[in-house]
Structures are given as structure tokens and as C-alpha cells.
Amino acid sequence: xxxxxxxxxxxxxxxxxxxxxxxxxxxxxxxxxxxxxxxxxxxxxxxxxxxxxxxxxxxxxxxxxxxxxxxxxxxxxxxxxxxxxxxxxxxxxxxxxxxxxxxxxxxxxxxxxxxxxxxxxxxxxxxxxxxxxxxxxxxxxxxxxxxxxxxxxxxxxxxxxxxxxxxxxxxxxxxxxxxxxxxxxxxxxxxxxxxxxxxxxxxxxxxxxxxxxxxxxxxxxxxxxxxxxxxxxxxxxxxxxxxxxxxxxxxxxxxxxxxxxxxxxxxxxxxxxxxxxxxxxxxxxxxxxxxxxxxxxxxxxxxxxxxxxxxxxxxxxxxxxxxxxxxxxxxxxxxxxxxxxxxxxxxxxxxxxxxxxxxxxxxxxxxxxxxxxxxxxxxxxxxxxxxx
Length: 388
Hints:
The chain is of the alpha/beta class. The protein has two domains: 6-239, 3-Layer(aba) Sandwich (Rossmann fold), CATH 3.40.50.150; 243-384, no CATH class. Helix content is 22%, strand content 31%. It is built from eight helices and 21 strands. The strands form three sheets. The chain has an eight-stranded mixed sheet with strand order 1-4-3-2-5-6-8-7, with helices on both faces. The protein has a seven-stranded antiparallel sheet with strand order 9-12-21-14-15-16-17, with no helix packed on it. A six-stranded mixed sheet has the order 10-11-13-20-18-19, with no helix packed on it. The radius of gyration is 26 Å and the shape is elongated.
């Protein structure tokens, strides 16, 4: 018999745990136990996790795992190991015993911890799923920030509660009807809190409070099954985006994807700045830069081995200059050069204009594919606006 492990050593490195998460929902209202007679909803939730997250094999976390009701079917569906993370060691021990009975003891592990202070390294998790847990966290905003911290760039998290889009319609209707009845009974205040915490507006507020760069709220709540994507419930889906750092705190670089094209938009109040972009799994087929400046005295895009240097003159009809530095040698990049790129000026409406972009406009450049031939780990940008 293989040993069943509860991993706790990491806690010694992370310091004491915060209080047990109970500030938002002190305890479930009476009546939830009656839902156990309905079909098992966890396999349906796992199907949605795999559909929307499409996780890579690797380090997967079931946060607020309890007895592994999500983790175990996730292992059964994929064969990938899963780590349960929960403050309740006793519940996880029961989950580990269930895994042993199913012959999955080598694929299910347990780690004692809470969402607000996970004993995990930065950028280490390939998938994080949490069903029914966020409503009991001490601080959902802090917890979501922690989730974002531990995700590796490109990994996704699926957090919320519900029965899954594949859950039988008759069972979902029975579940919802029963909850509506209980909202009028002796436990009405608790049931109303239960429902309020599971509104999409509440999930949206938590995600915005955590300053997640991009996210999607799916589902319409605890007493609705109207969302065709998830059926009954409410879920938060988000992905950790590539790391972007700017030289000045006031500068901003945002990302938008259109098919095989990624558009990076730069705003810089001072007109002088820089940024570094580090994608997680290679560069897209097309990289477009939009630099929201009035003028462009100089602009550099560097991979470390090759520099592309551009400028738009403040005189001579705003003539465009483009040069490439390869192995220390600088040469002009004209239309016949693999590093050539057109420098366009767009007005505030995004329409092409002659000369300079004007107020609210930008310079747009599609970076040459040759710049990414060696799949550089990062791209460093620098800019100076002569109208600063």
C-alpha cells in the first residue's frame, strides 16, 4: 500500500495561517443536505473546467477541496495528479482515503492552507479550480490576488459554484425550486445571504477589487439556470496574462487579441519611457504596436540580439526613418529589408492620417516577423516624444 501524504512542510516557510475563512458565509443554511438526493453535480463541473480551461498537464490545484469532490473526478477524467488545498485536514484525509479505495492514491495529494495565503511559489500552478469555496473566504479579493500570483503565465482559474452545464435540467429545476421555498422558511436570512453571495454582480465586484486584468463572469446565480454555458450557478474564469513591466509607474501598456494578432497599446504621460514584454509560450503570428504619443523622436524594439530603431522627424514632412542593429552593425531598413516595418499615423478615430497622429491619435507599427525568428524570451521597448 502506497503512503497517503498530507503536505504541510511548506507552511513552516510561509508563516502562520490567517483565521479560518468564515467571515462572509459563517455556515451553510439548513436544507442543503436535502440536495444530496439529486444527481452528482461534480462530474458536470469537471467537464466545464476542462472545456473552458483546456489545461496543460502539470501542477493542478483544487482550492477549498473538502473531501476532493472535484479533485477526484478531475483525476479520473484526465489522469493528471491534483493537489487539494484546504484548511480542513480532516476533510482532506477522508478524500485521500476515497482516492486510495479508487486506486488513485499516487495522484491525489493534500496541502493545508487557505486561499488568502497559499503556501505555493509564484507562477507555479497550471490549473486552479475551486467550487463552493470563495463564498467562505475571509477576504475574497485577497484570495483572488493570491490565485493570480500562483498561476503560471498562460494558466487559467475557474472559481465559483454551481451544478455544471451538463447537469440534468429536471434536477436543476428541482434544486432551484427547493432553494426558493427555503428562502421563505425559518432559515430565510441565511438563505438570502447564500443567494446574495452567489450573484454575478458580487463575483464581478470581487474580481474588480482584485484588479484582475481580464476575467469573465459566467452564470446567473444560485437560483438561476438560464446561462447555457454553465447552467445553474455562477463562475469566474480568468487567465494569467503575459508579464508586462513599464519603466515608469505612470506608463501603461495594454494587450488585446484579434485572432492571430496581438495589439499592444502604449500610453506615456511624460513622453519618455520603456517597457518589457515577456510572453509565456512564444510570440503570435502578428505583433502590432500602437504608441499613443504626439511625436516620435525615437522608438526602439529590442530582442537583446537585434534592435529595431524608428523615428518620425519633426521636420522634413515628418519623414519616417527605420534602422536595424544586428551584431553591432547598424543599417537602414528599407522595403527590401526583412526588418522593414511601416510606421503609420492614426487619428483619434483610428483612421490613417498624413504626418503626425494629432490629439488622441497614435503611431502604429506591425513588427517584422524576422524580429521573432529566434523566439526571443522578451521584447524591450523604449520611446521619446519630441513634443513632451
